Amino acid sequence: MFDLSAYLLDRKSRVDEVLVHILQGPAASDRVKEAMLYCMTAGGKRLRPILCLAAIDALAGDSQADSALRVACALEMIHTYSLIHDDLPAMDNDQMRRGRKTCHIAYDEATAILVGDALLTLAFQVLAEMGPQADIQASTLVEIIRTLSLAAGSRGMIAGQMLDIASEGARLSLETLEKVYRLKTGALIEASIQAGAILAKASDDQLNRLLTFARNIGLAFQISDDILNIKGDPSVTGKSTGTDALRQKSTYPSLVGIEKAKDKAKDLVDQALQALSGFDKRSDPLREIANFIIDRKR
Amino acid sequence: MFDLSAYLLDRKSRVDEVLVHILQGPAASDRVKEAMLYCMTAGGKRLRPILCLAAIDALAGDSQADSALRVACALEMIHTYSLIHDDLPAMDNDQMRRGRKTCHIAYDEATAILVGDALLTLAFQVLAEMGPQADIQASTLVEIIRTLSLAAGSRGMIAGQMLDIASEGARLSLETLEKVYRLKTGALIEASIQAGAILAKASDDQLNRLLTFARNIGLAFQISDDILNIKGDPSVTGKSTGTDALRQKSTYPSLVGIEKAKDKAKDLVDQALQALSGFDKRSDPLREIANFIIDRKR
Fold it and tell me: Of the candidates B120, B128, B142, which has its C-beta nearest A131's C-beta?
């Protein structure tokens, strides 16, 4: 029987070890280095890195290779940079994140802007620095850099955040809300799975199935986040509760009600699992992560 | 006789054409796209792209190749992103840039943060998207991405900006000031020349000479910027004058006086030219750009 907790703990600790090793390298600014470490070691779930590694596992690739762990770290750096910038006063103005003061509260706004910039840049550096000595071809690296930059950029995550801010206070249609979610959260979750698939040399059919899986769990994840913002326990989630309602943000539960939102998330996870029907038991980690996404408390 | 104005105009128009083509591609957020175009078409000197292309010319490479122009565009995107973020209220709080309202004034702070993020990400995307069809090997691309990310990151440009902000109001030693300049401005100028050298397959000796050239003009450029901040004509520079003094910033002229600062800049350009002594007349563009840096009005 597959033990999800053990799997998550193992993968998280592997990723964290490489992350901290990278961040503790030589620095030209002690303040930037310290703030980067502060933000990156605040105890996130490491969902995106783990999805990348689980996709590699599903394809019988080597999820413990240095290249795999570095790609996983790059994903977490991009995710964390986006949180730091989204938390800024000019954006979502959040004070708490992952159970700690947000970066601009713990340091200051200028530092938070620069630390976000630094983590985004470092993500690409970590990939490019693997260079010739690594267990990965340059053309594969370029494809992964392309995948991550597309997901993170103005046709992905950044567009999602812009639309999200622009629609504060407005009642969105379900269609528009799903577009925002697909861009803001979905794009990087899909890229995490896609990067794993590229590393493990997935066939076109396997890649398509994995992307269908990713698209469905991406939306389910965001819906469950909406529900946690209403019913979550801040001491467990590490984030304030009720902030969406306070900002009059359209969310899945605000548009269709909590019960229908839960049903939708469950449907999405079912569809995600269906996309994996051709995969053997090595895709159990992906399956269990999909189930976990709607059962989680944080 | 080499015509610098014609050279600068020609290279700038080639770069601008590719830049606008890239930025006018499909967008997921009209606002981000519009603001990116606003910031990127405000009429900068395109110094970094032109230095990259001039380095290629000096090495008898193909500075008109699509790959060269895309690398040049990536450099300008990184430079422009850094200006947008540096101009933010939490950082330098500048209202005017390149003769226009800065991004956060023309749009708003959230948009300016996201547009900076988007341009930084796009720089790497533009490089990675060249992919297999282009006139460039994947391993060369990875080396260029590595060079740019190192220069832009927390051991380069970002550390420079952090130190610059942290030292506002303090009287720096000349040594510390030079460190700030080397990181804040020098790193990306060096990377521009280095990227050109990588594209044109420079020998180690050629690369070292070009990097010496770059290091010297990088510092000369920043000193001349300090002088323009005192004696420049805002209608020509497109920036406010006297802002350094207002912020009590240590600058080269504030520490040693204007005349000694001018002498220093001239010395640096002489040393830069000396580093090119082994190059033939194809390096005339680099030579003339070096002279132009201390004679410029903007």
Answer: B142
| Domain assignment present for A292 | no
Range of the domain at B175: 4-295
Q: Give the residue from chain A lying closest to B117, CA to CA.
A: A117
Q: Give pLDDT, residue A60.
A: 97
- The total domain count for chain B is 1
The answer to whether residue A297 sits within a structural domain is no
Q: In A, which residues are within 8 Å of B131 by CB distance?
A: 142-143, 146
pLDDT at B133: 63
Please report, to the nearest 10 degrees, the dihedral formed by the alpha carbons of residues A81, A84, A86, A90 taken in order. -130
Cβ of residue A70 closer than 8 Å to a chain B Cβ:
no
**A246/A24: higher pLDDT:** A24
What is the ipTM score, two decimals?
0.97
Query: Which pLDDT score, from 0 to 100, does residue A295 have?
Result: 87
User: Minimal Cα distance from B91: which residue of A?
Assistant: A110
The helix/strand/coil state of A193 is helix
Mark A275-284 as b/e (b = at least 16 C-beta within 10 Å).
Answer: bbeebeeebb
Residue A176: inside a domain: yes
pLDDT for the residue A59: 98
- Integer CA distances (angstroms), A52 to A8, A22, A291, in order: 12, 19, 17
pTM: 0.97
CATH of the domain at B58: 1.10.600.10
CB B151 within 8 A of CB A128: no
C-beta atoms of B154 and A121 within 8 A: yes
Q: Is pLDDT above 90 for B67? A: yes
- In this prediction, residue A133 carries a pLDDT of 63
Cα separation, A128 vs B142, whole angstroms? 5
- Predicted local distance difference test score (pLDDT) of residue A238: 81
User: How distant, in Å, are the alpha carbons of A177, B5, B130, B159 from that of B200?
Assistant: 48, 24, 17, 29
Residue B135 is predicted with a pLDDT of: 81
What residue of B is the nearest CA neighbor of A187? B28
User: Which of B158, B163, B179 to mutate against chain A (most A CBs within 10 Å)?
Assistant: B158
Rounded CA-CA distance B163/B184 in Å is 9
Give me the long-range contacts of B88-93 (CB less than 8 A, separation at least 24).
Answer: B88/A110, B88/A113, B88/B112, B88/B113, B90/A108, B90/A109, B90/A110, B90/A113, B91/A110, B91/A113, B91/B161, B91/B165, B92/B165, B92/B243, B92/B247
**Stretch 164-193 of chain B: residues touching chain A, C-beta under 8 Å:** 165-166, 183
Residue A114 belongs to some domain of the structure: yes
